[in-house]
Known about the structure:
Elements: E1 2-11, E2 14-23, E3 34-39, E4 50-52, H1 54-62, E5 66-67, H2 69-75, H3 81-85
Parallel strand pairs: 1-5
Antiparallel strand pairs: 1-2, 2-3, 3-4
Amino acid sequence: MVKIRLARAGTKKRPFYYLVATDRRNPRDSRFIERLGIYNPKATGGEQKLVTESDRIQHWVKQGAQLSERVAFLLKPAPTATAASKPV
């Protein structure tokens, strides 16, 4: 089965991740089928935290790929400001 998950790159105490499509049996940082984006949790200034190729992610999901928990959380759209400010 194909999974879309994070593969760690970067240096010690400066993590950087690639979103990759890979066979679920492969180790975390080993070979992959395709790179689908990047995630930089330490982004500062004008850098972007998350850059994805959404059309390719949709392609893999249609082919039956499963998202890891963390990738699903990262790709979930943020609530809009109007929806968050409505009283309950």
